[in-house]
Amino acid sequence: MFCSVSPNKRLESRAMASTGTKIYRIFRWVVVIALIAVIAMMLKRPAPAPLAAATVTEKSTEFNAKLEGLTAAKEHGTEGEASFTSEEVNSFIADSTVRAAREAADPNPHPTVGYTVPGSPLEGPPLSDDEIQAALDKTQIAFEGDEVVAQTVVQRYGRDIYVTVRGRLGARDGYLAFTPTGFKIGALSVPVSLVNDRLQEKLAEPENHEKMKLPTFIADLRVENGELKIKEK
Fold first, then answer.
1. Fewer CB within 10 Å: N-end or C-end of the chain?
2. How far is CA 57 from CA 73, 85, 139, in A?
3. 157 Rama sector, left if φ>0, alpha if ψ -120 to 50, beta otherwise
4. pLDDT-based confidence at 78, cuts 50/70/90?
5. What is the pLDDT of residues 55-72, one digit of tens each?
């Protein structure tokens, strides 16, 4: 016994199939566009706050002077606390990064008379704006309220990926303690719960853990009112 399908039924079936195909195609393109947007956000480069070479030299010198004040307080048996702005910390990081790169390139530099920069850890020609900007592109710190915001760049698949971590600083058993409160890859926010365990594992690795060891004269440190506060023992 044969069952015939009416023309209307066939047309309705074809229409439904056509509609389903169109929806699939639209959904497919939505997924592709979303993936492109995610990748674009991951590759987006946050703009670092510019610092001139002259400012870096001045602020890194101030940073060193404040640290020396804390060590002097310890030697005299008095309590001391120093506050550091993000500009001072970034200047110290940039200054140290550039000079470490110079030392690695030329382990036995020949100091030139008139080129010593007072207060800097190494002697040599003055820092250039290009060198400073390159250092700031790699690592930069900001203090917002009671949190630190650290931005760094990592290489993946031949591309620069900018990672931004937000969190709270502290001291525990002579080591720097960090509790993340925010995480971004480029401009894409990632839930902290997805990365915190892995981050803590990396920080706990012996090589990285030793890098977190604080100088013996530091009792505590924290971010407060947009500044880094370091308390001497």
1. N
2. 25, 15, 17
3. left
4. confident
5. 888 888 899 888 888 888
Residues in Cβ contact with 128 at an 8 Å cutoff, skipping those fewer than 6 apart: 53
- What's the pTM? 0.68
| pLDDT at site 18 | 55
CB atoms within 10 A of CB 24: 10
Which residues, at least 6 apart from 7, have a Cβ–Cβ distance to it below 8 Å?
Answer: none
Longest dimension (CA), the chain: 108
Whether 185 contacts 46, CB under 8 Å: no
Tokens for 92, please give them: 């110290």
Q: What share of the chain is helix, strand, coil (3-state, %, to 5)?
A: 45, 25, 25
Tokens of 101: 């790169």
Residue with tokens 């020609």, as numbered in its chain: 125
Contact (Cβ atoms closer than 8 angstroms) between residue 49 and residue 140? yes
Of 155, 176, 177, 154, whose CA–CA distance to 164 is shortest? 154
